[in-house]
Amino acid sequence: MENYYEILGIPLTADRDRIRRAYLEKVRTVHPDINPSENAAKEFIRIKEAYDTLFEENKRAVYDMKLKQAATTQQNIKNFHYDFKSNFGGKQETGPRTPSTALIAGLIAFLIALAGGIAFVFLSK
Fold this sequence. Notes:
Blueprint: H1 4-8, H2 16-30, H3 40-55, H4 57-78, H5 80-87, H6 101-123
Helix pairs in contact: 2-3, 3-4
């Protein structure tokens, strides 16, 4: 998600007057009639979209909510590995993983039970 505040170079707390001034400053350098660059038209459209969204209070409120959700989601994705490790197992292991004693004991118990079940089936015939 594009950050319209960064596009216009303004803080999140900017008022409507500051938004208008930032827009006019950017447009003076990027407008396709003034700037012969190939990307000028695309950049002008981005700036106009940012201005239109941030200048209208209702659109800005919706955009701010979406921006906050995107930032929160991005932070959760970024910290997923850390959170997973901290919640399930504490510190991250650095060496090769070896099976724990409980896992080996459980596997042996399963194999013994399986062998007993197989023996029961053959002996009951």
